Amino acid sequence: MIQAHDHTSLSIAASSTALDAERSDTAVEPPAQYRTHGTDPLSDVLRTVKLTGALFFLVDASFPWGVEVPHADAFSSIILPGAQHIVSYHIILKGSGWAGIPNVASTWFEAGDVLVLPHGDPYSMLSEPNQPPEFDVEATMDYFRDMAAGRLPFVSKEGGGGEPHSEFVCGFLGCDMQPFNPVLSTLPRLLRIKRSHDGREDFLSRLIDLTLAEARQPRVGGESIRLRLSELVFVEVMRQYLETLPAHETGWLSGLRDPAIGKVLVMLHEQPAYPWTLNELASRACMSRAALAARFTHVVGHAPMQYLTLWRMQIAARLLADSSMKVATVGHEIGYESEAAFSRAFKKSVGLSPAAWRSGAVGTSQSQDRRLAQPDRA
Prior knowledge:
The protein has a 6-stranded mixed sheet. Strands 2-7-4-5 form a 4-stranded antiparallel sheet. The chain is of the alpha+beta class. It has helices spanning 12-22, 41-48, 72-79, 137-148, 182-185, 203-215, 222-244, 252-257, 259-270, 278-284, 289-300, 304-322, 327-333, 339-350, 354-372; strands spanning 52-63, 66-69, 85-94, 96-100, 107-110, 113-117, 123-126, 155-159, 162-175, 191-194.
């Protein structure tokens, strides 16, 4: 199965030729829900990878405190059955501490920071580095089971009873990683975002305040409201991260800020079914073919036509999972003239035939629907 950040794929010229050979001879407009109307690829990606709120709670920790969290694969079935992938994030409201993941130096954090673990790594959060955790992996798993079952209050008190106190929101989101999630694939293993203190209106703080206020008021429908708010918090965190990226940084989010690469990304996301060629993209971006190919690959991590193929496959995967469209129709929606050409491209990128992907996706979706149908535990 192709990896989302695989640099060993075919050469730029070869991938362009292969895509041109398989694409439709006429442009096919994609479904409205998969178009950004030329303005916002980030929203396009987050919508198509099906960002879903899973679980969040508030920790009130007295010194000393500490917790170890296993790899997300170990608890995803507890907090969000059916999710392909779990992203963990922590919003620090008060105090400070240390966050660490295996083989990476520990990161100090303080009030106002947001920590994001986008790749599901095991991690620890401690009041002091290298101290024994109060909650080891087994205790954390028991805690997740109790919290997901509604047996615990929203505010969790932890620690040894001393000063100073720390408070932080722990949140977990489900999303798709396969076939292609360009946002998460280029993020570091542990991301620390310092919230803005430049006097501008802090939209993230307002979202957090709304989230905490809703969580403290047990009302009908509260779980749905809280989970939607947690999704909005994550989106705003990604926007703030984008605003603070250094000019030399590479990755998909950096590509959005690059005038030429950002323009190409908008075009590809606005009309993924259009029969794009490297020549036309370069012409519209006012660059040479070679310059566009080199810069796009350096910044985004994929050649332009390879990126288009991966994104088409992500749209197709979502259509296969969420609709009853025939396979041939799905192929036409993303620009393939024949079912055979689409099926070959899908299996090459994803490792499964469209029918096999649909069968697996429907099973996980039904599992998730059963969980969401449970009574509100607010």
